[in-house]
Every structure is written in C-alpha cells, then in structure tokens.
Amino acid sequence: MKVIQISDFHLRGDGKLSFQKADTMKALHQTIDYFCSMKDYELPEFFVVTGDLSEGGTREGYEFMREGLRKLPRPVYIVPGNHDKRDFFLEMFTEETPVKEDIKPYICYTIDEYPVRVIIIDTSKPSCHSGGLSDRVAEWLEERITEYPEKPTLVFTHHPPFVTGLPAMDEGFDQADRLAQILNKHENVTLCCGHMHTAIFTSWHKIPCVTCPPIAMQMEVDFRGKNDINLTEEEKKEEFKGGGDRFFLGNPGYLIHDLQGDRINTHYQTIPTGADYSGPWPFKYYEGEED
Known about the structure:
The protein is of the alpha/beta class. The chain has one domain: Purple Acid Phosphatase, chain A, domain 2, CATH 3.60.21. The strands form four sheets. It has a six-stranded mixed beta sheet with strand order 4-5-7-9-11-10, with no helix packed on it. Strands 3-2-1-14-15 form a five-stranded mixed beta sheet, with no helix packed on it. A hairpin with a 2-residue loop joins strand 14 and strand 15. The mean pLDDT is about 95. InterPro entries: Calcineurin-like_PHP, CNP_phosphodiesterase-III, GpdQ_beta-strand, GpdQ_catalytic, Metallo-depent_PP-like. GO terms for molecular function: 3',5'-cyclic-nucleotide phosphodiesterase activity; metal ion binding.
C-alpha cells in the first residue's frame, strides 16, 4: 500500500507571482499533469496534501486548487496550514475533509479502511505562522490514537513539532511534549509534516518524523541565525532573519509512504519540470501583495 504526500502549493488565484518570483499556478498544473500521467501500478491508494494550499487563503485560490486536485486519479485528503482558512476548507472541500461534527471547526479526521491507518490533525492557529496542539485537538487525538493498535499509522500535520535547525522557521510549537506523549501510546506511528519547504527525516521522542518537500518554492537550507558572525554586509543590511527565510525556484517534490510488512518506508521524489533553481529569494511580501 502506498500513500503519496504533497505539500505547500501556496497558490495565488490572481495570476500574480508569489513573492514576485514563483509561478504557483504553473506549478499546480505541472504537478497535476505529472500524477495523471502515472501508470496505474505507480499510483497510491490516495494522496494527502499537508497544508498551505492557497497563498493568503483566498476563495479564488481554493477554487483553482479544488479543480486541480479533483483531476487526480485517486482520492485526495487535505490538512490545513498556516496560510489556509478553516471555513473555506469545510465549505469547499467536503470530499477531501471528512470531518465529524464533534471536532469542528478543527480539520481533524481519520482514514481507517486501509492496511495503513491515517490520522489528520489540525495544528494551525488563525492569523499565526507557527502551530501547535490545542486542548480540544489533543483530547480528540488521545481518543483516536489507540483505536487500531495493530495498524501501522501515519499522522499528518502541517507544522513539525520539533526544532529543525532553520532558525527563521523554528518558532515553537504549542504543547509539543503533549503531542509526543500521545503519539508514543502507539507502537508503530510515523509523523508526516509539511511547512518546511524542504525534506527532513528525523526521530523525535523516538517517533519517526518526516517533512515533505514543497510543490512551490524550495527552502534554502541555511543553519545560520540572524546574528551569525558569517553574515555578509548585504545580508545585515537586508535584516536577514536567519536560515529558513529564503527559497529557490526548484522542481516540485513529494513523498511516497510505502507499507512493507509492518514497516512504512518513505521515499523522496521530484517532479521534473526543468526548474532553473534560481535564487535564493526572500519570503517577502512586497507593496500591493496580499498576506
């Protein structure tokens, strides 16, 4: 059994380039065409998109995203990110977010009918870039995590709860320790995140964790802090925020989570679009751009 994870489209629905550099509409079309051209045996049972579907969370952007995702040859499930809007998710993506009334408006749900169980949890906080675990979501997850103890389980979030080493992105995660305590109640769980715009593979509190590469804007991997002695004069002048605040125009990427026996292997793949990897460019809004 395979699950394909994709993440971070940051789609602008107004035809403009994100951060004046990234053609997110083109990236969406290239990604959909790529997966639609896959042979049947290459396809997953379903796709999971781990957040930041639309830049600024606009209805216009979500309409394009919905049209694109529904062209995919397998079902799609989605997770909210910090750029997303829960009300649009619940209104426009009813097929992709089978959320029960007991947890609304949080976008949390499970997919139980496969050999691998999937748990989707909402780590977004309205109007906030960082993420965390709310008390209500934590209580819901406590009830869900041990329902199928024999099944290998993938837990999908947008925000990673662990320190990544990219200072501009390491903003903290509310109730990270509580999340670890809950996940450790299951003996075979992998935490799958988005948000970082680069692939990371690690272990956190003995829990295997991955972050998915993005569809749009590949993060520059730079571990320097904003006051690092190795900053250039130009970077100081531009008020460099620390590594994790710039991107390249690279090929989109995705992850394949593949069940082998009782173990899940994760494979990193790229979508060959002929990107030139220009950059790095700052994640910076310019005059006239929406947040």
